[in-house]
Amino acid sequence: MKATAKAHPNIALVKYWGKRNERLILPHQSSLSVTLGPLAVTTTVEFEAARGDDEVSINGKVAQGGERERVVALLQLVRREAKARGLGAPGRARMTSAGDFPAAAGLASSAAAFAALAVAARAAAGLKRDVKTESTLARQGSGSACRSIEGGFVRWNKGTRADGRDSYGEQLFDAAHWPELRLLVGMVSREEKEVKSRDGMRGTVKTSPYYPAWAKDADLEVKRIVPFIKRRDLEAVGEVAERNAWRMHATAFAANPPLCYLKPETLSVIQACAQLRKQGVGVWFTLDAGPNPVLLTSQRDEAAVAKVLTAHGASEIVRCHPGGDAQLIGSPASVGR
Ligand code: PMV
């Protein structure tokens, strides 16, 4: 009744911003991301037969409050599934999770964490691997986690059902499709963001007059970017990613109270990207709900882009490439995939 899984974070090229159902975490629009190797979160879940309070430890610390509750809620969904499939409901769980990258300020650590948790918890309960079910489950921990079950390029289909069963991540191209793509995270700030994505989205949906336009446009951008990814057209992909990031942040700026995740260094990096392009370097930015820009480039231009990031205030650069599927580690169940 014990399993360990490893999952990568992801960065959205067309972002998810706003829920139509807060409890089930159902989005207003579809989104599309690249899974990021080599960064990963590794999670172990062990179920005991006896009932009792779950033990949750994240990055070496006992989790408390909302953080713990989100994990416990997901474990509860796994117990329910195991029971429904005649496996008997597992008892109390011991869960430990650790990531190999900074947990705050815009990197999607929760996506990797909930993806690894969904895979490990289902396996520990004796359930067979099933990417669609794992994605649907991970989504209920953190929306973007549904895009970290599979590697490469993943579209989160928003779905239309009220129960959310058709709202999950679907791999369109695997990591081997575009191995020379590079994604460089420039750490311009390590501060924990003041407004979490969850709250930022809620405020934006409720008060930004631009919200309906955002949701409609994002769905169209998901459709537009797929053929560009298929033909590995960095310029076309980069242009969609940049304008989608601007549109998400513009929608958030227009909320009441306004929401701004950018720092002066963020803008300075964005402007440096535009300058670099004039010099023939292929580089485009995207930005999640935090100040740290993620630059899309190729293996060829990676060194030039890293240099400019450092010159514009990045204290650290995390270099990523398309990553693989979430995997079970050291367990016979991993042979199934
Ligand atoms: O899944 P959450 O609640 O961490 O929200 C993620 C929101 C963005 O990172 C800003 C966009 C995205 O699609 O990943």
Structure write-up:
The protein is of the alpha+beta class. The chain folds into 2 domains: 2-175, Ribosomal Protein S5, domain 2 (2-Layer Sandwich); 181-322, GHMP kinase, C-terminal domain (Alpha-Beta Plaits, 2-Layer Sandwich), CATH 3.30.70. 36% of the residues lie in helices and 23% in strands. It has 8 helices and 16 strands. The protein has helices spanning 65-84, 109-124, 131-139, 197-207, 211-230, 234-253, 264-278, 302-311; strands at 2-7, 10-14, 19-21, 26-27, 31-37, 41-47, 55-58, 61-62, 93-99, 153-157, 168-173, 181-187, 284-286, 294-298, 316-322, 327-329. The strands form 3 sheets. Strands 2, 5, 10, 11, 12, 13, 14 and 15 form an 8-stranded antiparallel sheet that branches. A 6-stranded mixed sheet has the order 8-7-9-6-1-16. Strands 3-4 form a two-stranded antiparallel ribbon. Strand 13 and strand 14 (294-298) form a beta hairpin. The chain is globular. It starts with a strand and ends in an 8-residue tail after the last strand. Mean pLDDT is 94; it is low at 333-337. It binds (3R)-3-hydroxy-3-methyl-5-(phosphonooxy)pentanoic acid.
